[in-house]
């Protein structure tokens, strides 16, 4: 038997073994979405069964988030993350923002606390589900919030300078041009081309 046929036979056996032995517990990241094989019922009577995936433990509510994902989605998928963000983070932010006048939305001091809470909430849930943060879903969440609440806010970086500064910046080169021309003419009239 040659080495090539042995390696092909071994790799075929290895793939078969993987499929037969338990690839159902492997979670894969495909196209920025987490997918997993369907899981069994997570409760046995009133006693919850252990989670079928790893759950972060850095926050007091991690087990609650992971349990929701297992019970309703089978795993910590992006759809589960989206649902949790909608009901746990974005709804609180929306309620806070709509409770104040829209004229106050553009003042950072008025919204910084709500914005920080939203950012912390999205990070906490992502960490609990062991989904990297930031991720495309969280980024899109912030883009949506900015386009809804902060679209009309002026940006200090893009505002025009005061009229006095604009006038000085325009007049200075205009005044320098005749001065430079007269110096060049004066130098060439005297025949002094070296200086």
TrEMBL record:
Pfam families, per the entry: RAMP
Q: Where in the cell is it found?
A: Cell membrane
Named from the GO MF annotations, one term is: coreceptor activity
Gene Ontology terms: cellular component? cell surface; plasma membrane; receptor complex
Indicate yes or no for the key word Transmembrane helix: yes
Q: Which UniProt keywords apply?
A: Cell membrane, Disulfide bond, Membrane, Receptor, Signal, Transmembrane, Transmembrane helix, Transport
Membrane topology is: Single-pass type I membrane protein
Tell me where the signal peptide lies: 1-25
Q: Which GO terms describe its biological process?
A: angiogenesis; calcium ion transport; cellular response to hormone stimulus; G protein-coupled receptor signaling pathway; intracellular protein transport; protein localization to plasma membrane; receptor internalization; regulation of G protein-coupled receptor signaling pathway
Q: Which residues cross the membrane?
A: 164-186
- Principal place where this protein is found? membrane
Which Gene3D superfamilies does this entry report, sorted A to Z? Receptor activity modifying family
User: According to its UniProt record, which protein family does this protein belong to?
Assistant: Belongs to the RAMP family.
Q: What is the name of the protein in this document? A: Receptor activity modifying protein 2
Taxonomic classification: Eukaryota, Metazoa, Chordata, Craniata, Vertebrata
């Amino acid at each position: 038997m040659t080495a090539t046929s042995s390696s092909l036979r071994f790799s075929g056996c290895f793939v078969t073994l993987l499929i037969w032995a338990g690839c159902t517990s492997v979670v894969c990241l495909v196209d920025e979405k987490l997918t997993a094989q369907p899981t069994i019922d997570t409760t046995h009577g009133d006693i919850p069964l252990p989670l079928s995936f790893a759950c972060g433990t850095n926050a007091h509510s991690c087990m609650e988030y992971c349990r929701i994902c297992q019970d309703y989605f089978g795993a910590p998928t992006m759809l589960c993350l989206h649902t949790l963000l909608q009901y746990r983070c974005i709804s609180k932010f929306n309620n806070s923002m709509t409770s104040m006048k829209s004229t106050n939305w553009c003042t950072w001091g008025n919204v910084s606390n709500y914005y920080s809470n939203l950012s912390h909430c999205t990070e906490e849930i992502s960490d609990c589900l062991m989904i990297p943060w930031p991720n495309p879903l969280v980024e899109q969440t912030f883009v949506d919030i900015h386009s809804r609440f902060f679209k009309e806010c002026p940006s200090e970086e893009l505002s025009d300078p005061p009229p006095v500064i604009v006038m000085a910046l325009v007049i200075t080169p205009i005044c320098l041009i005749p001065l430079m021309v007269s110096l060049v003419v004066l130098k060439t009239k005297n025949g002094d081309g070296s200086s």
